[in-house]
Structures
1.
Amino acid sequence: MIDGLVAGRLMGDASRRVDKAGRGYVVARVLARNRADEEFIVNVIAFDETPGTALLALADGDALSLAGGLTPKVWTDKQGVVRPSLDMIANRVLVVAG
């Protein structure tokens, strides 16, 4: 896993889930861009209450930055094009009050 900092915009709303053991966590998706303006989808999961609560307070399209562990992945779109994505376990969520 890579320690990373990602900035982007929330895609849809974050949602709270519960695992089989009854522990809660929050999942979200973030659209981020690199310097070449290529888009990356970041699949975010937050196990700790503080980042989870911050994600749940945001709405679709809100800007945010996330710090945590990153795992690079790839996925294939409907046209068969392989695209990069990232999975992140968020430890911190930073937002700008608007």
Note: The chain is about 10% helix and 60% strand.
2.
Amino acid sequence: MTGGEEQDAPERAGAAAPVPGPRLPQPPRRTRIVLAEVSRPASRADRTRSELTQQTRVGETLVQGLVRAQLTLALRLSLLVLIGLGGLPWLFAIAPSVGRLTVFGINLPWLLLGVVAFPFLIVVGWAYVRLAERNEQDFTDLVQRPER
């Protein structure tokens, strides 16, 4: 090799860029295709929920039924408390001998009205909450019940 050829070799190496190979095709990007919603008849639960949210006559009637059930429950338990606690003074007035009884050295009227009344009211309150929640659950079940 002569000196000229040696000088040309580096020039050829630097001047010649590698030839890019054929480009491989890129995989296509995924495209999400959403089909139209399948039309189906509205279920009874959907119609009922719609009636409630739109405040139509049917929805109004359903809510009034729930309110009526809650009011009936409240009135029944109030009547129970009125008879249970309000009837004691009547009992003591009608039968004075019952009012003079003593239990553990305490007069019966004081024991019933001062001690026994509080657990009685707690039990009635507990029963009210439990029964009111049951009414609400029945209403919710009615609204969300699937069509048969």
Note: The longest helix spans residues 57-94.
